[in-house]
Amino acid sequence: SLAQVWSSPCTMVLPVVTMNATAARAATRPRFQTTRVKQQNISKKSCPSSRSTRCLSAQRCFVPRGSMLRSSAHSKDEMELDAHDEEEFEDVMYDAWDEDVDVVVEVSEDEAEVSSVLCDIVADKAKKSIAKHGAFTLAIPGGSVAKALGGLVDKDIEWSKVHVFFVNERCPDQKNYKLAQSVFADTVSLPLEQLYTIEAADKSPSEEAARYEAMLVGLPETVMLRNGSGLPRFDMVLLGMGADGHVGSIYPDSPEMEAEEGLILGVEKPDKMSISFSLTLINSADTVVIAATGFKKAATVSAVLDMPLAPSSNPQAMLPVMMVDPFDGLVVWLLDADAASELEDDDDEHVDLDIV
After folding, report:
1. How much is the pTM?
2. Phi and psi at residue 305, in whole multiples of 5°?
């Protein structure tokens, strides 16, 4: 049952998690009050005792650039920041923190700094994944997030062991593939056959989705890990977020939000034909990074991170980004100050700690 999944967050109980189950899970998950990170300090606050006991195992951390935050396994009330042990935390990234942390929010000054942070995170995850299992599987979108990856050309990455996929892609234009090539792939030593795209042919989105999914599930486990349910488990999935809350090519009130079958979905709209990762595939990842910048996205960011959802909430009314909730992984939100500008800041429930 879903209750069993929640009671043991690190254990997959269901053999297959459908889209409806994902929607139900997201609708009933408790949401936590959050606090905007201020320049040169970090806010910490306890999880309100009036919320579900899930608060004790799903904390939201706010991290300013240049600091490391971790939870205390023995403290149910607060997240702990050791601002004076920079060397100790120098090599500690999100996947090494206490397992109680499953959502991290990092606020940067502007879009340029968000891009820099994103490239740092990708490069560090690549290093750790290659050291751990000999490969790094990365899924990227298009748009501003893909453009932000230009900083990867200066990173020390073992590109021969990197495999890049596309969260969504236009059919048959290969728009995101071409963008990735121009931004970083043509500059670094990434083997062309490890940049996985659709066929530039006159095929329907559903046909392209079936081919892309077959390619994905056919990869050996030496490249693509599997989770406890046998689903492909990306080391990292990068997502942008529209002001309307869409991710990939999954839009509010769309059939793709309800899809029960398929890891790759064919999306047909009058002005856009594409394929897209399903929410099930996204949520099977080890780490999902959502990057959002600009005032236009502030209200949506606040709706996701600040607003509690009642257990009776209708999954049909949810935004796709609200359903990004890895089954056994981590979500990292990378925001600039504008996108974070509407996050709640309740001075009665947090303590500011100076960052040296």
Report:
1. 0.76
2. -95, -25
pLDDT digits (tens, 9 = 90+) for 42-87: 232 222 222 222 222 234 555 544 333 323 232 323 334 344 444 3
The torsion of the CA quartet 129, 81, 149, 240, rounded to 10 degrees, works out to 100
Q: Bin 262: left if φ > 0, else alpha if -120 < ψ < 50, else beta.
A: left
> What are the structure tokens assigned to 144, written together?
């501003």
Segment 221-271, tens digit of pLDDT: 999 999 999 999 999 999 999 999 999 999 999 999 988 899 999 999 888
Spatial strand order in the sheet of 101-108:
59-64, 101-108, 330-336, 287-292, 236-240, 136-140, 162-166
Tokens of 179: 């963008």
Taking the CA atoms of the chain, what radius of gyration do you get in angstroms? 19
Dihedral angle at the C-alpha atoms of 353, 34, 5, 316, nearest 10 degrees? -160
Distance CA 7, CA 54 (A): 8
Rounded Cα distance, 344 and 356, in Å: 25
Token pair, residue 336, equals 């600039």
Tokens 């709706």, residue?
303
List, in sequence order, the alpha helices (H) in 225-332. Answer: 255-258, 279-282, 298-305
Q: Measure the CA–CA gap between 272 and 98, rounded to whole angstroms.
A: 42
Q: Which residue has better confidence, 17 or 328?
A: 328
The token duo for 15 is: 């053999």
Angle (CA) 174-22-243 rounded to 5° is: 55
Assess whether the previous peptide bond of 172 is cis (omega < 30° from 0): yes
Single-letter code of the amino acid located at 11: T
60-74, 137-151, 209-223, 337-351: segment of lowest average pLDDT: 60-74
Joined together, the tokens standing for residue 327 give 């089954």
Dmax of the chain from CA atoms?
59
Q: How far is Cα 6 from Cα 23, in angstroms, rounded to an integer? A: 14
Alpha helices in 135-267 (DSSP H): 143-148, 175-180, 205-217, 255-258
